[in-house]
Amino acid sequence: MASKEQPKPLMPHATATWLVDHTGLSFEQIAEFCGLHILEVQAMADDLAGSKYTGRDPVHAGELTLGEIKTGEEDAEYSLKMHKAPVEVTRTKGPRYTPVSKRQDKPDGIAWLLRNHPEVSDAQIGKLIGTTRNTIGAIRERSHWNIQNIQPKDPVTLGLCAQRELDAVVAKAAKRAGVTEDAPVADETVLDTRSDKDKLIEELRAERAANEKAAAQAAQEAEAEAWLADKRAAEEASAEEVVDVEAAFAAPESAPAEEEAEAPAEGAEGDDSQG
User: Fold this and answer.
1) Among 60, 63, 43, 61, which Cα is nearest to 52's?
2) What are the angstrom distances between the C-alpha of 7 and each of 64, 77, 87, 148?
3) What are phi and psi of 107, to 5 degrees?
4) 170 or 198, which is more confident?
5) pLDDT of 201-251, one tens digit each?
6) Which residues, in sequence order, are CB contacts of 135 under 8 Å at separation 6+?
7) Are residues 156 and 162 in contact, defined by beta-carbon separation less than 8 angstroms?
8) Cβ atoms of residues 112 and 153 within 8 Å
9) Which H or E run contains 10?
10) What is the sign of the dihedral through the CA atoms of 194, 196, 201 and 205?
11) DSSP summary character for residue 128
12) Cα separation of 218 and 90, whole Å?
């Protein structure tokens, strides 16, 4: 019997499906190798399983060898040995992954952080929620395309991050803000010394920059929509070509029947002419 500590395939159900369809191994051997119950393997063989799995070739994956499978087929009591244990998939560095069902909630979480924790930097928000600085800036400047429907909501409640992660980010941002707590006094003095003309120029520049960002984002969205439309059109054209090819192959099959139908007609004309 195989050791209980033997590693299991990376995708047990998919591997079992492939072994059922492509080998003569017994259900017991497949169940033992994949770490499944024999009734699960039986259900796969009888197409009674609740979920349909696409087979995964363990030979191609390096988990089994053809010789090992052949030995198991020749001896029903033989326990398959793992040739090479699968490599565990680990999370690499990169932006936080957010499920598709929750991505639409990101703007609400960003708005909540901007309103309740302005000391948190854009980089921290982006890492915490998994978004970009452009999106954060658009929500802050209220130039986001969906700004009218954005409602500030706690990102923890939305499931975008954990409470401990949010607390750690807020604490770090507060600590950093406390170091420069005396700086705003000098900033306010500078602001007070500016003339109305300078303030107006700065507001106009900010407005122009926001409009440029909005235009750039709209252009990107339009380009993405155009690409998607072209892709759908290409798929439809490809489907029509397949239908035309099938029709072209089907047409010659009906030709002999038409010739047979025309043959009696020609014979009938000959009889009439003789008469």
Assistant:
1) 43
2) 12, 20, 10, 53
3) -55, -35
4) 170
5) 888 888 888 888 888 888 888 888 888 888 888 888 777 776 666 666 665
6) 106, 107, 110, 144
7) yes
8) yes
9) none
10) positive
11) I
12) 37
Task: State the amino acid at position 138 in one-letter form.
Answer: A
CB atoms within 10 A of CB 138: 21
**Residue carrying the six token digits 């999370």:** 91
Separation of alpha carbons 169 and 121, rounded Å: 9
Q: Which tens digits make up the pLDDT trace of 8-32?
A: 888 888 899 999 989 999 999 999 9
Among 7, 22, 108, residue whose Cα is nearest residue 62 = 7
Amino acid sitting at position 263: A
DSSP reduced 3-state for 188:
helix
Q: What is the DSSP letter of 145?
A: T
Distance CA 141, CA 210 (A): 7
* CA nearest to 44, candidates 66, 69, 65, 19: 19
| Cβ–Cβ < 8 Å for 20, 33 | no
Can you tell me which residue has the tokens 């969906």? Answer: 146
Distance in angstroms (rounded) separating the CA atoms of residues 62 and 40: 24
The 8-class DSSP code of residue 105 comes to T
CA 6 to chain centre: 32
Residues 6+ apart with CB under 8 A from 133: 122, 123, 126
For residues 41 and 27, is the Cβ–Cβ distance under 8 A? yes
Q: Which amino acid is located at 55 in the chain? A: G
> What's the residue count for the chain?
275
Specify the amino acid at residue 3.
S
Rounded (5°) CA angle 115-120-124: 125
Averaged pLDDT for residues 127-143: 91
Residues 156 and 131: their CA atoms lie apart, in Å, by: 15
CA distance 80 to 82: 7
Phi, psi of 210 (to 5 degrees): -65, -40
Cα(164)–Cα(158) distance, rounded to whole angstroms? 15
